[in-house]
Structures are given as C-alpha cells and as structure tokens.
Amino acid sequence: xxxxxxxxxxxxxxxxxxxxxxxxxxxxxxxxxxxxxxxxxxxxxxxxxxxxxxxxxxxxxxxxxxxxxxxxxxxxxxxxxxxxxxxxxxxxxxxxxxxxxxxxxxxxxxxxxxxxxxxxxxxxxxxxxxxxxxxxxxxxxxxxxxxxxxxxxxxxxxxxxxxx
Length: 164
Description:
Blueprint: H1 2-23, H2 29-38, H3 40-52, H4 57-63, E1 68-72, E2 76-80, E3 87-90, E4 93-101, E5 104-108, E6 118-124, E7 130-141, E8 144-149, H5 155-162
Helix pairs in contact: 1-3
C-alpha cells in the first residue's frame, strides 16, 4: 500500500513537470500558477506517508498472526488474540484480559457487570505473575472496558508475558 502511494505521487509530479516543461510559458500565467499549486499535493502526501508509517503499522499486522502481539506505542502492550487469555479477578468474578500494557488493561465484560469509576482486582498472567491492580475506567465500548492503572506495570513483566 505504501509503495503504491509513493509510485502514485511520483507519477503525479512527473505529469505536472512534463506539462510545464513541454509547454513552458505558452501555458499562460494562470495555468502555471495552477500547476505550482497542484505540485504541492504530492509532497504533502509524502510527508503524511513518512509520519503515518513511521510507527511500523505494517509490521504490527504481520505479527498479529501470533497468539500475542507486542505493540510498541508510548508504552509496551501485549494483545491477546487467542481463545486462551489471562484473567482479571474482581470481587470473585473473572474477566478475560484482551490486552495489557504498562499503564492499562482492557478486559472483556461478558457478564455485563456494572462497575463504578474505580476498579480494584487481581491479575494473573501467563508468565506466572499475579499482581493487585487498581485504576479508573477510561473507556467502555460494547462489552470491553479499558482501565488506566494507578500504579504502572513494570516493563520487565510485560516483556516476560510476551514470551508466553
């Protein structure tokens, strides 16, 4: 996709420059001005491509074929794509964890339990780490709940979890 966009931009620039250099000043002032305005758009597209694809979204898609995906944003994150997921225990009810990062957890609320703004629970990860967590709910979408943790999870734990 990225290569196709680059080729399209090069073709656009080539066409504009071809028209300008073959016809030259015979085009008239307004047409020349229009060509110079049009030549800006491929350069804007190049800048967008450089910023959007810098974070490696294509690599993340390739890695998503594994059961867990390690995603590097501002923090480390492990997304669980398999049927087997780690568990978050809140008031004797267990919830499947969809992804976990240094600063938050997103879990599946199949029971449609009602939660207040603050959550406390126990997370049990595949790597054998069990930890108490507390945080605030920052997003509810369908039956998924995202929690911003009060105390961040150490990077070492996230990296260790990736191995399982």
